[in-house]
Write a structure and sequence with these properties.
The protein is mostly helical. It is 70% helix and 0% strand. It has eight helices and no strands. Helix 2 packs across helix 3 (28-44) and helix 4 crosses helix 7.
Length: 167
């Protein structure tokens, strides 16, 4: 019974947890370690599963906390979008795909320059597709703070795109 619950409610989000940890740590092995640690901790807390309203939000929050702890311990802050996610329109012409690729690289660079809260909110909303409520739960922010941070992150990137005549 517990294995079925774990397989249905926890394991399906492991790739999202990995991408999130990877976006914070920029280190494949450390991201894998964080996800494994989260999965082990969740498994060990089986007796409290019935109290958890949103398992995905809990695991995302655990991932964020563990990844930030690792990051602080090594004092290294770099960030990019996940490499393995398909960002381009596969039906586009080669010249359009090149333009898309350049735009993606530029947005990655701009995300790297964002303050941590802005970057994390944008990562969770625009890349992971989480709701404002879920983001607030994961990052321990109010709905207003989530929306404000997302607005500022997008505004920063938009301004740089327009300033540099990228779009």
């Amino acid at each position: 019974m517990k294995r079925n619950y774990f397989n249905e409610h926890v394991l399906p989000v492991k790739d999202k947890l990995y991408r999130f940890a990877q976006s914070i740590l920029k280190n494949t092995m450390e991201a894998e370690d964080v996800v494994q640690e989260v999965l082990v901790k969740v498994w060990q807390r089986q007796d409290t599963w019935h109290e958890i309203e949103n398992m995905e939000a809990l695991t995302m929050r655990m991932t964020k906390n563990l990844a930030l702890d690792k990051l602080r311990s090594r004092h290294n802050r770099t960030d990019t979008l996940p490499e393995h996610v398909e960002w381009q329109d596969q039906q586009a012409r080669p010249d359009e795909r090149t333009e898309q690729s350049d735009l993606i690289r530029y947005v990655q660079q701009q995300m790297h320059n964002l303050p941590e809260k802005h970057r994390l909110v944008m990562q969770l909303r625009d890349i992971e597709g989480m709701s404002y409520e879920e983001i607030g739960e994961v990052l321990d922010m109010t709905m207003s703070q989530v929306k404000t941070n997302l607005f500022r992150a997008r505004q920063h990137i938009r301004e740089h795109l327009l300033k540099n005549e990228i779009v």
